[in-house]
């Protein structure tokens, strides 16, 4: 993973431009592993371009963890 949260946000934004199954998989992995609330907000927002069960599950996991999103 990239050390700077801004790069992780840029990757999520690029992935949202290509709503494919591989992009959804990568975003789901990002959601599950992201700990920085600044990046997590944008990664979750990028998921809005998708309708994949895998992303739904990853978003629910984030909510269950009780992470506060930074906006």
Task: Describe the protein's architecture and organization.
With 71 residues, the chain is mainly α. 68% of the residues lie in helices and 0% in strands. The chain is built from 4 helices and no strands. It has helices spanning 5-16, 21-33, 37-46, 53-65. Helix 1 (5-16) packs parallel to helix 3 (37-46). The radius of gyration is 11 Å and the shape is globular.
What is the 3D form?
A: globular
Helix content: 55-70%
Rg over alpha carbons: 11 Å
The protein's oligomeric status is single chain
Mean pLDDT: 90
Strand content: under 5%
Strand and helix map with partners:
Layout: H1 5-16, H2 21-33, H3 37-46, H4 53-65
Helix pairs in contact: 1-2, 1-3, 2-4
What's the short story on this structure?
The chain has helices at residues 5-16, 21-33, 37-46, 53-65.
What characteristics describe this protein?
single chain, 71 residues, mainly alpha, 0% strand
